[in-house]
Here is the input.
Amino acid sequence: MLTLLVICFVAAFLAPLLHRLCPKYTGVLLLSAPLAMFVWLVKQIPEIMHGHPVEQTCIWVEKIGLELAFRLDGLSLLFALLISGIGMLILLYTQGYFKGHPQQGRFLMYITAFMASMLGVVFADNLLLIFIFWELTSFTSYLLIGFNHESEDARKAALQAMLVTVLGGLFLLGGLILMADAAGTWRLSELIQRGSELVAHKNYLPILILVCIGAFTKSAQFPFHFWLPNAMQAPTPASAYLHSSTMVKAGVYLLARLSPALGGTEEWMLILTTIGATTFLVGAVMALGQHVLKRLLAYTTVSALGAMIMLLGIGTDYTIKAMAVFVLAHAFYKATLFMVAGGITHETGGETSIDKLGGLRKAMPISFICALLAGLSMGGFIPFFGFVAKELWLHALDHYVLLVIATVIGGAAYVLVGLSVGLKPFVGKMPDGLRAHEIPPAMRFGPIILGAGCLALSFFLKPIGHGLIEPAASAIAGKELHVHLHLWAGFNKAFMISTGTVVLGIGLFFARNTLLGMAQKLRPITKVGPDAVYDFLLKSVLNFAGWQTRNLQNGSLRHYIRISVITTTFLVIAAFIRAGGFETFEKISPLSIRISAIGILMIFATFGTVKSESRLSSILSMGVVGFSMALLFTFFGAPDLAMTQVVIETLTVILMALAFYHLPATNHISPKKTRAIDIGVAVGFGVMITVLVLAALAVQTPTPVSDYYLEHSYKEAHGRNVVNVILVDFRALDTLGEITVLTIAALGGAALLKLRPSTRRRDVLVALPQESGGDTASTKKENPS
Amino acid sequence: MTSIILRTATLYMFPPLILFSVYLLLRGHHYPGGGFVGGLMGGAAFALYSLAFNVAAARKLLRFDPRDIAAVGLAISLLSGLPALFSGEVFLTGTWWKIPLGNGNYFDLGTPFIFDIGVYLVVLGVLLTLVFSLGEEE
Here is the structure.
């Protein structure tokens, strides 16, 4: 499992290279990775059917409970088959869609990387691992939505999708950590066994809410649904793959996976059912007002995801089965419709509006048939697979009258959308000026296979029910379920309602123009929707960032120093007061004459630094302070420090003298007010340090650290100079960090110095040619006359 | 800044300064000294040279770009941590080899010393990168 996953990731990174070597077959070559995965998955079906999950574990970071634990059970299998299967078709489709596009390699890399990450999500059996893959899908989704990065809309949509899903990811991480803490394990499969402990735990509600926010943002649930329609800025292969059939289902997958652990409570049911049903209705109703092909489909995806969450929330055996079937049905018809929609836009020269399309059946017969199959499946027409799903769903909702009514309304909207995309563009009269031709062969595989599947699946209900749905539903329910799918269950209540829904939907389809008019009038409402809230929040954050940058980082060095010093002073004093302040002053030894003399010298030198009129004498006075310090070190038996201090002091004086050489000659003196503030800041800092040193003296550690070093320095590190041994052996990693920082600082400093406007040199160059004699070689070259 | 006294003095001062800086590096493990102060001392010698003559002359004397010296030093320090990994220890754990000197004596060569050489080069390189950049384009 791990090997196959690694192959997928490696394939992703090879994509740009492959594209450079043989641009015509990149997609086909990359296909081998998902194909291998798919074949392997199919081979596992018998084992999984008998309830034997496949497991594989490698230790990664033991200390934080992170291990590469993978587990394939019924639920993962269903999703993984969809991901790798549709992934193959999408790679082929991309080959045709981006034919001759110079950036095709980049796109293939992103989408293959996404596929690998998404497979990781469904395979992962460790809470942290699932989170890592989860974030990787958000990240690759960001890259894919923003693929056309020259377009501002695409960039904005990519950022929005990323911010919403990653923010949700943070909540999810919190929830996962709390959950691992409550259950005492990071292993997902063990955690599920301890469902009763989790539900009874005091943190149950926070865990549930955090996990739900994570799942809801990812799966575009109300009120986070707005990013998904905007994400349609992505190229169609990405929309068809990520934003309809796979990534957005990650939230559904996660909740389904955790359902045996967290599910079955009133809170679970309340949250999931309410949000799910709301999303289902909001998505369906908002879809009615859309006329752009992909956005129309996006809203129904939002709605379908809501339906899955709703079914999961109710959590009876029937609803769980219905959900599993619906996941399968939805993936088939939605991916087909997206691919056809992309094909239409691709082959008509960029037309995206349904209202401007028509009569394409002659030009694009293959697309027409595929779209019709998928559209009818979406609408739930008998005998399509969508019908089977809807039948099961209505049957499962038996007792919930409100939800049945919602389903009827939503279902009718699905019929309308299914027909709008599957039928409307292909029939009627072709508008003037519209030219179209059939999609290229590479793009046909996906729609044909999946479109045919929408119908064909209905004739293999028994193997599908036993082989796929039953293990998946059992994994969600956490107990063994039996699934028998029927195409025809007799004239029961569900069939009546289903037929009624279809009829209502057909009615809506013919009244579509009226509906669109109504939607136009309702448009202002969307202005106060979550999208507007997102915009407002983003703007506020940016404004705040701008405000604080202007105030804290305004480019004046003096300001930076002032702020750093003031902050340090306050933080240290606050910490000091919290720790209880002083205890005793007993340990201070009396001052000897020579030390007092040095102290007085230092005080005078400090005044000299501050009061001096010229820069050079300031620097020299500061040098006096430094050298006196070195002298003090020698008196207190620290030759290493003293030596370093002497050299450092010398070099500081040299460096400062060199730096000041470049400054303008004017001796600018700050106004009185600034000087007063500066004095306050400086005195405050000095007092703080003094207090701190005195306090450090009062602290009595039972055994000083120095004893340890003194004892072990020669024995273990072969060195008598303890200071040096600490630097290069005991704490070598710190030193390594320090010298790295030092190098970076030097490179940065050198780069900044190169940047300075070299006015002086330019002056020279301008001035020289004007000189009459031209007495140097360089001017002769420049000025041959 | 051209002073004949400074120039002459520098010519005499420079070799002992460099020798002293290496001496500091070598004795560092047992007595006051070490890579840091040694590097500073070496840097100071070149800084003095660049003041007495000019930066171009100091660069020529140094032969290598100070940035390269810093980079090489950093690499040496980093690599000195690797031998520990081969013997299953934590990164940067001191590893010592006894190198026979022929007459029954041994020289203790340890990774901490190699690490210190790296520190010496980094400090020298960093210091001179800054001094040279500041001193150039006068």
